[in-house]
Amino acid sequence: MYAKNLKNLNIRDNVIVGSKAANLGELYALKVNVPEGFCITYNAYEEFVKENGINKFIQLYLDENKNGKISLDECSVNIIKSFLHGSMPNHMGMEIFKQYRALGKNVSVAIRSSANMEDLEESSFAGQQDTFLNISGDYNVIEYVKRCWASLWSPRAIDYRMKRNYENNNIKMAVLIQKMISPKASGVVFTCNPMNHRKEEVLVNSAYGLGEAVASGAISPDTYIYDINNKRITYRKKGRKEFRYVNSDSGIKKVFNSSKMIHSYSMNYLNVWRLVKVCKKIEGKFGCPQDIEWGIVNGKIYIVQSRPVTYRRIDTR
Fold first, then answer.
1. CATH class of the structural domain 3-179
2. What residues does the Pyruvate phosphate dikinase AMP/ATP-binding domain cover (predicted)?
């Protein structure tokens, strides 16, 4: 099997789809709102690499870089080309088409990595692989799956693994494909305040539009700190929020916010409380503080991703 519906995944499936995708399956079981979708398994990556003879190119260019014959950038470009020029096996492509078409006719999707070394408690690998938003059409989905696989071999991803002594040859990637949402507000929640490591404080970052602007650090978001014990917001600060990303016919686009939007909060008190409640429920499920990406669509809270917070020590006061 090369693709599995997210609703059919659980934490035991992390060995075939990675923890990012497996965690989303657990959230379905928890009755948390998650955008519909499916995950292309490690098996698909491994077979694609084998069928196209890519492993020998990976080893060749990594060795040439190690021996000083080519730069890291040249190494990366050559490996990525081998992925983009590779052919998707027909039986694999048909299974991906079937899962994609089940989401709706030419539906727009987000395509994200779920690699076997991502979202570990000791090292998150966050942001090392590429994400592609608002992609539609059978063959476009296949093309961007290949690009997602190829992003394992970007210069920053290779360098990140090398500096942490992770074996490049052991890396493999599953690919998450989910329906796009068009949130009014979105952002990131840390269920334990990463600024002071206090477990009773939840840190919420939010802004208008798609969550990419917050997750990538492209804008200064609104910040809220919610105290679980006292059941209230103890701190809030407006971010600049100069622009937002929204869905468009050609993918996503940047839209500059009005002065009124910039000088207003992107979340009201009620939605902060509702969001914190959902996120603490997720923390309880996984048994450790979580770094959660979310969006609100027509008042409905969606969770896009949940992974362990990657600091090592938490103040238990």
1. alpha beta
2. 16-311
